[in-house]
Amino acid sequence: MIRALIVDDEELARRGLEIRLQKFDDIEICAQSKNGREALADVKEHAPDLMFLDVQMPGMDGFDVLRALSSSNMPAVIFVTAYDEFALKAFDANALDYLLKPINDERLAEAIERARHNADEKLADEHCGKLLQMVCDLTGKEFSLESALLAAEGKDPGYPQRLAIRDGAETACIEVDAIDWIDAAGDYMCVHVDGATHVLRGTMAKLESLLNPEVFVRVHRSAIVNRHRVTAMRPHRNGEYFLTLGGDTELKLSRKYKGNIERIAHRST
């Protein structure tokens, strides 16, 4: 079964998609969200495999939702939109599926068929990377790691203390110690700081080599955490752990990085 989440601020649109999905025996609707904030909570609670995501929503739109999610819990995404031609070209260029409102049954069937083939972990990573690249292309909220370091270059020796990340027309200067966690997909990284998400173009391995290992710990092949932000840990199956950051963020520590648990536990207990 494919567990699906419907995200749309219009009740009739949610209901209409729900009815259309009933004809697919392998699609199970696990939740419906009427705004971006609910979508983030529902992804955390239900861990859907697939998300039908409305792009245009008041407050937190569909792109904001993608920026706030981690690559480790990012479901496959099918955009549902009445968006303009520019955005549709961006979806096509990045091989991302979308459904135009009103939804056509044949196109819905094609999109679901593609989602069925997206379960492979490598394909899922590629999908997530394409999502971030497309969001950057449309919003202009992206900066390379090298540019971020250069723009924030100072006289302090040792590990970089600041990153300068372009966010649209502005550049955000971020104190490295204030970073809560970082996750990656493809050639893009999401840097999470105090509830905000900034996108950097670069590799996780390169960024990890620049961070102070006394503070930042690799917990997953696609995630690094500031160990000072970890408030709780709970064991999971197969030697994995779930790490709680603050009150509402939870990250998985995979078996591959189980040896790093002591570095985190030393601070969080």
Structural description of this entry:
- The strands form 4 sheets. The protein has a 6-stranded mixed β-sheet. Strands 2-1-3-4-5 form a 5-stranded parallel β-sheet, sandwiched between helices. Strands 14-15-16 form a 3-stranded antiparallel β-sheet, covered by helices on one side.
- It is globular.
- By secondary structure, it is of the alpha/beta class.
- The protein starts with a strand and ends with a helix.
- Helices cover 34% and strands 31% of the residues.
- The longest helix has 19 residues.
- Strand 9 and strand 10 form a beta hairpin.
- It is built from 9 helices and 16 strands.
What gross morphology would you assign?
Answer: globular
Strand content: 25-35%
Radius of gyration over C-alpha positions, nearest whole angstrom? 19 Å
The overall strand count is 16
Question: Oligomeric status of the shown chains?
Answer: single chain
Task: Describe the strand arrangement of the main beta sheet, using strand numbers.
Answer: 6-11-10-9-13-12
Helix residue percentage: 25-40%
Order of helices and strands: EHEHEHEHEHHEHEEEEEHEEEEEH
Task: Tag the structure with descriptive keywords.
alpha/beta; six-stranded mixed beta sheet; 9 helices; 269 residues
Quick summary:
With 269 residues, this protein is of the alpha/beta class. It has nine helices and 16 strands. The protein has helices at residues 11-21, 36-46, 62-68, 85-93, 105-116, 121-139, 145-151, 204-210, 261-268; strands at 2-7, 27-33, 50-54, 76-81, 98-100, 143-144, 162-167, 170-175, 181-185, 188-193, 196-201, 216-220, 223-226, 230-235, 241-245, 249-253.
